[in-house]
Amino acid sequence: MARYVTRRAVYGLVTIWLVSVIVFTMLRVLMPIFYGDIVDLMVGELGRNDEGLQAELRSEYGLSDSVPIQYVKWVGDMVTGDLGTSLYTGRSIANEMARRLPVSLELGLIGLASAALLAVPMGAVAALMQDKWPDYVLRIYAIGSNSVPGFWIAILIITFGSIWFRWAPPLSFAYLTQDPVKHLKIMLLPAMLIGLTPSGGLLRIMRTQMLEVLRQDYIRTARAKGLSERAVVTRHAMRNSLIPVVTIIGLSLPGIIAGTALFESIFVLPGMGQYLVQSVGRLDYPVIQGTNLIFAVLIVAANLMVDVSYTFLDPRIRYR
C-alpha cells in the first residue's frame, strides 16, 4: 500500500511539473507571439512609447532573462512558497491565495458533498424500485440535471428572484470566522447549484451499479442466510456499488473546481476562480501561472485520495 501511494505521488509530481511547463510556455512564449508582450501592453495603456521604461519594467518583472532562466527562477520561487506579485495590484499572490483558496475549497467541497448525498441514496432507491414511478421520476431528474447547466439556473434565480421577490445575493462577503450564519447563507446556494449537474451522472451510475450488484450470487446468499433486506442493501449492495461512484467523483473534480470560477463571478465570491478570471482579462501572467498550478496540485491530490479510498470501500482490493 505504501509503495503504491509513493509511486502515485511520484507520478503526481511529474504531472504537476508538466503542467508548470505547459502553463509557463503558453504565457511566456506563445502569448507574446499572438497577443503581444505584456510590457508593451502595459506601456501602451499609459499612452507612452518609452524604450527606457520598457527595459526597466522587463528587468523588474524578470522578463529580461532567457526563457529557461525565467522558468528556473519561477520554479525555485514556487518551491520556497514565493508565488510572486501581481503586475497590476502589486500584492503578494501567496497572500491573496491564502485568503481566497479556502472560499473556493469550501464552495467545491460543499457542492461535491451535496451531489454525493443526493445521488447515492436516490440512485439506490431507483434501483430498488426499478420500473416503478419513483424510478421514473429520479431518472427524469438525472437527465434534466445533466442537461441544464447550473450557472444558467443561478442566473435565472438571481433574475427572477430580484423581479418577483426583491431578492438578490449579498454584495458584501462574510467569512466564516466573522459571521457564520451570514457566511452559510451566502455559500449554500451556489454550492448546491455547483453540485446539481454532477449529481445527475452520479445518480445514474449508482442506479446501474446497484442493479448489477443486486443480481450477484453473494446477495442471494446473504438473503438466504436470513439477513434483513436493510442489512443486505446497506452492508453489501451499497458498499460494493460505491467504487465506480467514487471514481466518477474523482473524475468530476476538475469540472467542479473549474466551475467555481463561474459561480464566484455570478455570486461575487472572493475565491480563486474569480481571481483567475480577473487576471486572465488583464493578462496578469504571475497570477495565472500560480492559480493554475494550485488547481493542478488540488486535482492530483484529490485523485490520489480517491484511489486510496478504494481499499476502505472494498477490503478485497489490495495494491501491490
Task: Summarize the helices and strands and which ones pair or pack.
Elements (H helix, E strand, L loop, with lengths): L1 H34 L2 H8 L5 H10 L6 H13 L13 H36 L4 H15 L2 H15 L15 H35 L2 H8 L4 H38 L5 H11 L2 H29 L7
Which class do the helix and strand fractions yield? mainly alpha
Q: Mean pLDDT score, rounded?
A: 81
CATH class category label of the domain at 93-313: Mainly Alpha
**Dominant shape:** globular
Rg calc: 24 Å
Question: How far apart lie the N and C ends?
Answer: 6 Å
Major β-sheet, in short? none
Any idea of the CATH topology of the domain at 93-313?
MetI-like fold
Task: Please tell me about this protein's structure.
The longest helix has 38 residues, at 229-266. 79% of the residues lie in helices and 0% in strands. It has twelve helices and no strands. The protein starts with a helix and ends in a 7-residue tail after the last helix. The protein has helices at 2-35, 38-45, 51-60, 67-79, 93-128, 133-147, 150-164, 180-214, 217-224, 229-266, 272-282, 285-313. It has a domain at 93-313: MetI-like (MetI-like fold). It is an all-alpha fold and 320 residues long. Helix 7 (150-164) packs across helix 8.
